[in-house]
Specification:
This protein has helices spanning 5-26, 33-40, 44-51, 54-69, 81-92, 95-98, 106-110, 119-137, 146-162, 166-181. By secondary structure, the chain is mainly α.
Length: 184
């Protein structure tokens, strides 16, 4: 049975949302097509008709995940770049973000797996890293050290999620936050 273009677009969004959550929670390699279709409430056929393959779905999902979080570091009305950096870094390096990988940063959540993925996933991921660095450069004095800031943020979040000691995890987050917010 054919679906309307509006329904197809709705299905695409459901699939991307479910894939983004599951990929961040379970990983790209550990998330099968069965789980993706079930989480989206759709059939395998719907998934394949939208994307053609799991690899193409992963490419689109990585791009969508990164795009969805892109505005979080942008200064809000009346906010200085320093205030925006403080707001963004405090939220990024929070226990709430650490404890919700399915809703969190794809750059930190998928970094360990991306080197083993195909070219399309790596390109989407690379564009996300460059975009995050560009947005952070606008918040840092004279745009300095943006790549170091990306590495500190994503590395700290990755480590905080990986260790099994809650106290150490909290210390990793707070140490990184202090480092990124230090006066230059």
């Amino acid at each position: 049975m054919r679906v309307s273009r509006a329904k197809a677009a709705e299905n695409r969004e459901k699939i991307l949302e479910a894939a983004g959550r599951l990929f961040r929670e379970r990983g790209l390699g550990a998330t099968g097509v069965d789980a993706l279709a079930e989480a989206a409430g759709l059939t395998h056929g719907s998934l394949y008709s939208q994307f053609g393959s799991k690899e193409r779905l992963a490419e689109a999902a990585v791009a969508a995940m990164i795009e969805a979080r892109a505005g979080r570091s942008t200064p809000r009305d009346g906010e200085t770049p320093r205030q925006a950096l403080e707001r963004f870094a405090t939220g990024y390096l929070s226990a709430r973000h650490r404890d919700a990988p399915g809703q969190g940063c794809a750059i930190a959540g998928l970094g360990g797996e991306v080197p083993r993925q195909g070219e399309g996933v790596r390109q989407a991921y690379t564009a996300g890293v460059k975009g995050m660095a560009g947005r952070l450069a606008a918040l840092l004095p004279e745009g300095e050290e943006a790549l170091a800031a990306v590495a500190l943020l994503t590395g700290a979040l990755t480590l905080a999620r990986a260790v099994d000691d809650p106290e150490l995890s909290d210390r990793i987050l707070s140490s990184a936050l202090k480092q990124i917010l230090q006066e230059k």
